[in-house]
């Protein structure tokens, strides 16, 4: 039942949106007003702006962290890294849109901030953000499970499609079909969204349940924590969006904005941090088991998990040095050692005998 | 038959563009109106904006993904990587132009959004984007085929030139010669564009057909899928652009925008993802065959395809240490081990005897 | 007692903020006026702008420095690096907000600059910045202490939560609850903030005290210096914020801004530089003790601390080459050495006997 | 004879620039009007914008390509890479200026676009771009010739100074001294510019001629092609700039803009691509000759030119491990292996005997 | 005696700044007018803009160059690299401010450009830039001298503090205390600034003089050239700033701007290039002497200075593999080689005996 807000942007609300709306239209039970049409006090305005900016800065810091630590994860678990990087990058950009939208959406009149026609942009960018980042969060989780090959590709496809449709149907209900205050439409799309929400939960929980017994106890514990954090975080969103049904006003609008900022940081930074630790731990386990090498030592909280290693020296296939050792025209003084180089060109560097000779002396 | 739209921006349409246009001028069969001159409802406006933004964010995420995974592809297939990186970068920038253009193009009047003089910029940036990205998409496909040397350069040149001319002639018909509603011009340029479209298809299909029997079954299967996705994706565009011939209105304009957003994401992200997998698979095959080394293990969907390797240690040509081992003036206490270093400077590190001695003890 | 400013933005102050305010409302002892409501002279305006811009540029230069030297620190101490990178990145962005805010906040009237309604944005971005960067500064310090495992994670959680609440309660007192000039609220929130300030100090000092006897004398000395610089730097902020209680005017506003700029640079760049040296030194000690390898030599002020090393060549687990050495279809002339490669494919590169043979000749 | 345009911005032209200028002032033979003062039709406006944007996107894609392929060129030829990177970066930025300038420079009046006072910025950014990029193009060419040491530094200095003066004198003639329509000034500066143009040609051709016999036939062929493309591309510019002498109007202005866009892409992307191939080929030749090692295999169009190699393991000078193996205070449980590490610290890892022992067993 | 300009912004000048000022107030000998209050002709305006933009582009190209060549300098001389990177980054940003400031600072009235209230921003950003970059330039020079340890840290502190105070006192005199035309203040601050100027010169020259006899002749020659270029470049600035004392007008303002652009490019790009060569040469000397290894060959102007090398393989301390070789739960089919991996896990990869066995066969 993720996003099931049922606003009613009455035509009056639209035409008279430039003046503060204090009386709540409550003829129909399901008739609600969009939270962004409520005027804010000075305190509410600065508090909302504060949380929008620090959430944006935190997500940006999360992006910088992910980028800087990208070498800590083996190439096997890189899809989790890529998803996390995209999540933080996209969310940072969305918060730029939100902050600009919030700054432009309110007019300062006396000691209140009155929303203008652009106030919809204090909420809509959130849905645009989620449409891209929620599917990526499912990828992030699945990438550190033990599914592999076609299995993981199928699970990713189902989870991405399901979570996109979950957000998209919520968006349709809120901004497209439910915008005329028709409560039945809102309930319909809310219900459809909920179906997808349950579906995605099932896909993810099944994948995690399959993985837990196969992983080491440490990895399994972290994976379980990460899953719980993600799925519980997702419960916040519908809870927040029920608010407009029974409450309206600047205080509630501020509550919604602040809660969503906190939830975004928890889910995107907190969950991402746990997944990063799972990926590091599993990389270290692969190194210790000899399944892979990693070019730097893996440390978690100052405890070394695996040593740095370098791969074995590879001897190319016999004829892999495609190019015949071609004669080289005199290059005069272009490089100081030209004469020596010419001499050497007669003993191709690729002949194994030659090398063996040098070594076995 | 790629872009053959036949709009007629009647002079009336231009002079009275600032007021909502509801009646469709249908005196001539071929006379059409540009889709960007139709007013939008609230729902259509927010829905179009939603798709523009999420397509832009998805393309940006595609750019981040390509950049982060660039080490997974061997240097042989790097041209595919470069093309994909440029495609996603250029498309992301174009969507910024589109979103800014869309935001500025409509004036909010009551409950409708009326297009103003800048509305052409809700469509024109798409052609600018395609003029650069469509030729790069052909490069991306050809770079993982088995053509090589002058052959691949010729195929790339033909495909790039053909696909640029396909877009450019479509642009000429739509915005330059066909802008005065002259249907014959529109049909003419549409036909020319179609010729280039067929030509590019032929070039690409021939290259792929030559490659399939030479590749391993897995690579060949993926390459076939990628080709089908690309060429089918390209069919969407002319289908969408036929719409203005027989329909006009906000609903159709929204349909066009949404479909093009979806098609762009499918072709640029979906196709790019498949090509990335082909390139990884072929890199792994080269490693397994001993044709190349790769510094990290290649994993696809948690299945290891090849081990990490490091190249053989290279002994430079005899005299390659160009610089004579020069005497070094006393550097006093600049480095703590100055005295030791001086001692050592008499035994040049490059003399093979010296090294052999240390080793063979 | 970190930020305990007690402003009183009188309702008169709010309603008449657009005209220069010269008379100070001093009926109540605790009644204060926000420093951003004072008009500035030409000199004060250019001097403040000068310090805002050079502090912003210095923080940006600090970001560039951190980014460029990121390879100098071992993976064990990377959390310190990440924190420093995020601190400088977030602070740079905040100074962009501050500079834009400052430029827009004053109107040029005759030879004075009169603050307008947006003048709050010359101070509020500082609290947004600190809410993210102060917790990260505690991470930076803890990451080079000798705590490890769950211990370091607990200390980081406590220090981050405590320092965030320290800033957040200061923000609540200044901008939300204390904005109506109610002195009791201001003292209340100032006191709560102070409690968190003391708590964070205790957490950090305990961690450092535990580390000092375990570290080498050099590392311990630098760590002690860094801790003193950080904690003394944090004392400046409340000192500065006491100013509004007993003084108001353009001169004092300029003093506040300049002092905060200098303090930000000292704490974020100066402290960060010391931590970087500790991290380098401890990395070098790990290399010398054989606990880790580092791919480049570590030099501090032109004195070499440890040699470059490369990790041991790793032999993968027996069966780690997952892929059976598959037969490869003829690839014709795609690669020049195709025939040779085929021949070689029968002798798998992973068989140890084969390798041993080549070597032991 | 590179840029010798002879415009005459008549004082009338300046004062009445805000109204469309249709009549051409042709009293004096040499009196010309600046092309940016001509009004454009709808078609001309959108066509020019199209070419400006796609040229900008193509140059940006060229920058992305250069950046992504920077590891393909050996450190010897890196100056060519750096020059190419700077050329594409600077040109991309200039096209941003040009596009913004073009968007602001014309007012939409009926169905024509009338240039306003800012129209000079549709042309001036080109000269600013060229002042930086043309000298860099000469560096790019010289860096893959066979000059070395002081010789190449002298040639670079002469070519950079000459080409900067070529552009600068052209700029002086066009925008500074010739702006008052004084034809004699225009011819004078055009002639001076031509002298520098010939001088730069001589410097470059001499360097290339010296290189050709020394290079391998393949490299020499590519270098010859690149030189021809560059020098022929440079001929386009003066040809285009002769236009204003005998023609004026929107059509000609569009022709000038489109041709310059095409020429910029040809010279900066086409020439750069050829130089990249020369640099790769010469790097591969150095590897094959044993003059250098390169960490990845070099492939050109799917043909392998040289194998990946890694440098010989270096033994540092005897006493190079500056730091005496210092005693390390007990580090308790900071690292799990503390006890083992202490034991080991008595056997310094740098002593050769120790190592020899381990090896020679 | 670096910046000693003595402007007098008369109160009349400030109040009537919006109209062109032609008469120069010359009652007092020392009374001067700020150069940014002079109106410019068309030619002067475009010429100044031209130099601002190309200087900005050149500094940006310098940033790109420094970034791309950062691997050419050993970690010992990285502080020089970091300083150069910060200098070019900060200067590029400042020129963006300058160009924006210049564009907004003049109103187009007839054929002259009249400065408005924002004209101070055509000069002030230069002082902000210098406050950060001049101290960094001293770091750049000291980093390639032979000072080390506490010595270099002390010299850096003195030179940075001195050069910051040199700029800051100049700024105080020009924009803060001397802005009211009080000549005695101007001379006072000019004299203080000169004292710091001399102090910094002494610090730098002493460090260079100490280094010259210790360096190789080549390095010493380059270091001497770089020092001369820097210190002579610094002489230009006070010379330019004397101009306002005896001259006023658009021509002189243009002269000042152009000269400062040229000086900035010379000092920041020219000096930086020489320092880069010194750092490369000294890195190569360290490699040849066996004091360090460098992963790529160092070439200067196509002459090889040192070979690529890789560090010795490091054997970790006995117990350095912290983690006990833990038992691993069955991972089923998650990785294809699971069974083999389990078998192997009983023979820990870290045991030296095991390895020795494999080797000594």
Number of domains of chain A: 2
How confident overall, as mean pLDDT of chain A?
A: 79
* Overall geometric form of chain A: elongated
Question: Per CATH, what is the topology of the largest domain in chain A?
Answer: Rhopdopsin 7-helix transmembrane proteins
Low-confidence stretches of chain A: 1-30, 320-361
Q: Strand percentage of chain A, roughly?
A: under 5%
**Series of secondary-structure elements of chain A, N-terminal to C-terminal:** HEHHEEHHHHHEEHH
DSSP strand count of chain A: 5
Q: From the helix content, strand content and strand pairing of chain A, which structural class follows? A: mainly alpha
Number of helices of chain A: 10
Distance between the termini of chain A: 76 Å
Radius of gyration of chain A: 29 Å
Largest interface: A-C, 55 and 65 residues
Task: Report on the architecture of this protein.
The structure is a homopentamer of 361-residue chains. With 361 residues, chain A is mostly helical. Chain A has two domains: 1-31, no CATH class; 35-289, Rhopdopsin 7-helix transmembrane proteins, CATH 1.20.1070. Helices cover 62% and strands 5% of the residues of chain A. Chain A is built from ten helices and five strands, in the order H-E-H-H-E-E-H-H-H-H-H-E-E-H-H. The first copy, chain A, has helices spanning 11-15, 42-68, 78-105, 124-143, 149-177, 183-211, 217-246, 250-289, 338-345, 352-360; strands at 40-41, 106-109, 112-115, 298-300, 303-306. In chain A, strands 1-3-2 form a three-stranded antiparallel beta sheet. The first copy, chain A, has a two-stranded antiparallel ribbon with strand order 4-5. In chain A, a hairpin with a 2-residue loop joins strand 2 and strand 3. In chain A, 57% of the residues are buried. The model of chain A is unreliable at 1-30 and 320-361 (pLDDT under 50). Chains in contact: A-B, A-C, A-D, A-E, B-C, B-D, B-E, C-D, C-E, D-E.
